[in-house]
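Quick start: read one record
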Amino acid sequence: MKSKIKRAIGLKYKAGDKKDAPKVISKGYGELAEAIINAAEEAGVLVHEDPYLSEVLATLDMGQEIPESLYFVIAELLAYSYVLQGEVPAGWEKHLPGMTHKV
């Protein structure tokens, strides 16, 4: 059985900045991927594992914005990460009663 090489791609998105899409800020394979994941977890950054999404993101260059075709899936992940942290993106308050708006 062939073992898969671990891959990690880090994205950065400035909440509230409607002009810019999330950008690739880190990427690596194998031991570097493990280091990226460990650093993210230590910093409290949500880590999402999706081999298909990472395959597409791995084709992007450092500093490159995600393509428009990924906006919806990345927006869902960002929104979900806010909820997991007990935060509510602006405009979501009526859909998530009892949660406090922090973003």
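The first strand starts at residue 7 and ends at 12.
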